[in-house]
Amino acid sequence: EPVCSREQEDHVLYRMPNIDLLELSCPGCILNISEPKGQTDVHSDNKLKDGDDGSKEEKHVSRKGLRRSKRQVRRGQRNVQTETKYIELMIINDYEMFVQLRRSTLQTKIFAKSVVNMADLIYKEQLNTRIVLVAMETWSSENKIAIGDDALLTLRDFMKYRKESIKERCDAVHLFSGRTFMSSRSEAAYIGGICSVTRGGGINEFGSVGPMAITLCQSLGQNIGMHRNKERMTAGGCRCPDLWQGCIMDDTGYNLPRKFSRCSIEEYLRFLQQGGGSCLFNKPTKLLDPSDCGNGYVEPGEECDCGSLLECTQSGANCCKKCTLTHNAMCSNGLCC
Questions:
Q1: Residue 16 lies in a domain
Q2: By the 8 A CB rule, do 251 and 230 touch?
Q3: What element of type H or E holds 125?
Q4: What sequence ranges are listed for the domain Disintegrin (predicted)?
């Protein structure tokens, strides 16, 4: 970045610390649906090297232009907790879901959007992460893959279908099924699979809007590095504070959970800090529905979009009015506003 000096061409270069990426020990079997026996999860004990807390920076002043370097440098390390993340999601409704919703493509679309919107509210409030519906497909004549009682086999076939047949660019593709799987859980997903064409997805069984929204929170939670482990969650520091409602990634509670436990949130942040979820930091440029000023996404025809009236008041009202930059504003929020 430029530095204040007499020489106008002086710049400061920041060197990023080395970050160990997640290593997949078993790419074909990282599922989390059945009980611990035979189950393999993605995990990594890799940390930043001793003494390297990510805050070190090395300055080099270069005069008369910047020198080329083999080392790729970035301007500081992003704060994965405070920076808003975006999960660009595609939903596929199977034939059974279509039948459950009166064989109406419109009703199926409205139902699926309601599920995603409810899940988005939870992710936005607790994880600073938006679930953005970018595409939807409804199988109105027949299923395009075999969907049976075994959720693991269905997930395997569904992800194969995604790789071979879905051209839509998105971070994850999830199946909404109108049937019930023979499993103790109502979903199946790859742990840490977000951003991957072969593992970025999950399947969710039928229910009303509320239960399906929580199921989607759980399956997407696994995609972004969260684990479902009854023994770990019911003991020690990971115990869910709300024993009646339960927590979203737990197998406890007597009602629909609404909160992620502290440990689930820490798993997500650790996943991001270790290099996972790199696709979540770009703002979506395409939504399923037409442009709508006030939804928080800059779409064609808009210069900015600071969100709802309350959100704009908190962060961008001085620079963005009705999705148009105010006089002399160079951006909609932040220090440059």
A1: no
A2: yes
A3: helix 105-127
A4: 290-337
List 174's β-bridge partners, or say none: 91, 202
Provide the token pair at 289.
């529905």
Mean pLDDT of all residues in 321-328? 84
36: which DSSP letter? S
240 and 298 in a single domain? The answer is no
Tokens encoding 213: 């929204």
Sign of torsion over alpha carbons 325, 84, 193, 74: positive
What's the rounded Cα separation, in Å, for the pair 72 and 292? 38
What's the domain count of the chain?
2
Residue 114 lies in a domain: yes
Q: What is the mean pLDDT of the chain?
A: 79
Strands 187-189 and 201-204: antiparallel
pLDDT digit string (tens) for 297-313? 777 778 888 887 777 87
Kindly report, residue by residue over 33-72, the tens digit of the pLDDT: 433 333 334 333 333 333 344 444 444 444 444 444 444 4
Q: pTM of the prediction?
A: 0.71
Q: What are phi and psi of 284, to 5 degrees?
A: -65, 145
In this structure, the number of other CB atoms found within 10 A of the CB of residue 121 comes to: 14
Q: Are residue 241 and residue 305 in the same domain, yes or no?
A: no
Partner residues linked to 131 by β-bridges: 87
CB 120, CB 209: distance < 8 Å: no
Whether 157 and 304 share a structural domain: no
Cα separation, 9 vs 175, in Å, equals: 53
| Residues 6+ positions from 289 with CB-CB distance below 8 Å | none
> Distance between CA 215 and CA 218 in Å, rounded?
5
Q: Are 252 and 243 in contact (CB under 8 A)?
A: yes
Please, what sign has the CA dihedral across residues 171, 175, 180, 182? negative
